[in-house]
């Protein structure tokens, strides 16, 4: 039975914040290639390395923060951390458009200052979305969790779709600086709603030290939990790849075919918007699939579809050709399933009082995956071609499919997650 104190308006606030946080994160990534190319004058030859490095630097510094904030959310609550995170992200977004001027003023250069602002933005959002996921898990039980998490993922996908379908069309008319400033406004709205509308309902973690032993024991006892962590490592970079490398592919290929960069960005934005629409439309079906098929089988199916789509992009030469569309649709269908199943599985298998810590570790593992694959992807983009990063991530997705089939060995069922393991582990640590 879900906690009755978590009222309908608080759930609606969670839906809204899921969309707002994704708007902020996606907009920051989407406008980055335009800003680096047109304001900071980053050349085509170094575009992959520079854009990937910005993403990697932000992810590396996110890791320790997300990990520690997960523990703090168990000790002191999710809501204060989410509110402060939105405010920090908004501060970075407000100063990012002034990177060239402020970088010269402080004597560090525009690119270095932009790095710092992107780090601040990333640290802020890194504090937000894990708390939103934890709050969603706190307010649901085994039966209601798949549908509620699917609805949350729906709102996140809606936020990403709005960015590419609408907001990334704005640079043609207003310029990209206006869009960058708009990002700061989104962060401030998120902070206000978090402070006014959310409540903490999970029991607080009493012990002051980080629950290493309990988490280690949970991971040791259940290979489904290990699978969810593996999916985070190998597949969390998927949507980052679409947002970053597809946009870069269009913007820098535009120079070869004499298309204006703003037009190329709009074209890429439309396709990424299509990806978001496919995710939106299919998410309710994935929520139902988790209820019917089980967590692990749904995760495996999503990874298989996504891997097929990404590997298929390796056969594309000109991204402006229509042949790119079916592969992006396949990748989007798979990603819709992968947005929900791993987190549902992780929350199912974790006691409430250490859920923030476990999700913190889950997100750290995913962040490490983003760092590894985005860095390799940037190298492949520069030295092999724009299609190479997508093939890389497609192969990684198929690796997770293989592990999923191993987890489903035996009778192949994905029975209801029992809380007995969690209860037994808690009793052991209460006795110590």
UniProtKB/TrEMBL annotation:
The portions of this protein that span the membrane are 12-32, 52-72, 79-100, 112-136, 148-167, 173-194, 229-252, 264-286, 298-318, 324-347, 359-381, 387-408
Instruction: Check the UniProt entry and state the signal peptide residues, or none.
Output: none
Which stretches make up the Major facilitator superfamily (MFS) profile domain? 14-412
Q: Which UniProt keywords apply?
A: Membrane, Transmembrane, Transmembrane helix
Q: Which domain of life is it from?
A: Bacteria
Q: By its UniProt entry, which InterPro entries does this protein fall under? A: MFS, MFS_dom, MFS_trans_sf
Asked if the record carries the keyword tRNA processing, the reply is no
Q: What Pfam families does this protein map onto?
A: MFS_1
GO-annotated molecular function: transmembrane transporter activity
Which sequence ranges form a coiled-coil region, renumbered to this chain?
A: none
What is the name listed in the Swiss-Prot or TrEMBL entry for this protein?
A: Magnetosome protein MamH (MamH protein, major facilitator superfamily)
Native species: Candidatus Terasakiella magnetica
């Amino acid at each position: 039975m879900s906690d009755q104190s978590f009222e309908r308006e608080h759930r609606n606030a969670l839906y809204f914040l899921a969309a707002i946080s994704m708007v902020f994160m996606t907009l920051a990534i989407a406008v980055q290639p335009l800003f680096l190319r047109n304001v900071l004058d980053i050349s085509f030859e170094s575009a992959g390395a520079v854009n990937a490095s910005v993403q990697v630097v932000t992810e590396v510094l996110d890791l320790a923060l997300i990990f520690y904030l997960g523990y703090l959310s168990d000790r002191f609550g999710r809501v204060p951390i989410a509110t402060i995170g939105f405010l920090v992200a908004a501060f970075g977004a407000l100063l990012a458009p002034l990177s060239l001027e402020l970088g010269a003023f402080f004597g560090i250069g525009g690119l270095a200052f932009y790095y710092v602002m992107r780090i601040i933005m990333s640290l802020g959002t890194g504090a937000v979305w894990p708390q939103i996921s934890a709050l969603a898990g706190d307010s649901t039980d085994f039966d209601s969790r798949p549908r509620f998490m699917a609805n949350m993922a729906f709102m996140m996908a809606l936020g990403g779709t709005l960015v590419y379908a609408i907001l990334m069309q704005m640079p043609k008319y207003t310029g990209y600086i206006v869009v960058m400033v708009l990002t700061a406004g989104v962060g401030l709205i998120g902070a206000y709603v978090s402070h006014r509308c959310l409540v903490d309902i999970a029991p607080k973690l009493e012990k002051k030290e980080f629950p290493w032993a309990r988490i280690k024991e949970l991971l040791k006892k259940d290979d489904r939990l290990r699978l969810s962590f593996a999916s985070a490592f190998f597949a969390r970079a998927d949507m980052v790849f679409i947002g970053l490398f597809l946009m870069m592919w269009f913007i820098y290929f535009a120079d070869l075919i004499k298309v204006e960069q703003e037009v190329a960005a709009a074209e890429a934005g439309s396709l990424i918007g299509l990806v978001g629409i496919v995710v939106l439309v299919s998410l309710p079906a994935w929520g139902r699939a988790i209820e019917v098929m089980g967590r692990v089988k749904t995760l495996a199916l999503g990874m298989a579809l996504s891997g097929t789509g990404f590997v298929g992009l390796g056969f594309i030469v000109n991204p402006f050709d229509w042949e790119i569309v079916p592969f992006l649709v396949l990748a989007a269908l798979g990603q819709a399933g992968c947005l929900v199943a791993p987190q549902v599985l992780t929350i199912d298998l974790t006691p409430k009082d250490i859920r923030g810590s476990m999700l913190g570790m889950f997100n750290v593992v995913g962040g490490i995956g983003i760092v590894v694959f985005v860095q390799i992807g940037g190298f492949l983009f520069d030295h092999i071609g724009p299609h190479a990063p997508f093939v890389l991530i497609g192969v990684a997705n198929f690796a997770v499919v293989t592990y999923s089939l191993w987890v489903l060995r035996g009778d192949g069922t994905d029975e209801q997650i029992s809380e007995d393991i969690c209860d037994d582990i808690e009793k052991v640590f209460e006795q110590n």
